[in-house]
Amino acid sequence: LYQRLGFSGAAPTSSGGIVDLDRTFGGAALSWNRRTTTAAGLPLMWSAGLEANGMRDGRNGYVNQNGSQGALRRDETNTATDLGAFAQFDWTFHPAWQLVGGARASRVRLGIDDHFITAASPDDSGHASYSNVSPVLGVVWHALDSLNVYANLGRGFET
User: How many CB atoms lie within 10 A of CB 143?
Assistant: First the structure.
């Protein structure tokens, strides 16, 4: 991404009026599913998995000299990674009723490595990590072939 903003960004503490962003990202996931029955012959499905994702941004900012690239005002590398593990189940304990539940353990790490350090723009490098376990539990009533009534209770996780 190369973008010219509507201001110069010439101030010593500005990150610039021209943005030059280079982003790479990727991830992988592995999951396991198993359908079985309980001792009473009722359906039970289990799932478990792992996920890993990462993103790396090279961010540069320059003075916008009437649309031309001027002096460097920002040079940093931003990273974001997340790792997650989850398990869930879906149990039909009666032909018209299902119980669903699960949990996800997540770890997110964010980082900034500042490469543009001056007297007016000190080192802004830093890292932060967040982790959480998010549970969910719900019940589904299959009232009709075309109507399901459900209730779920869970906890989310945002960084």
Answer: 10
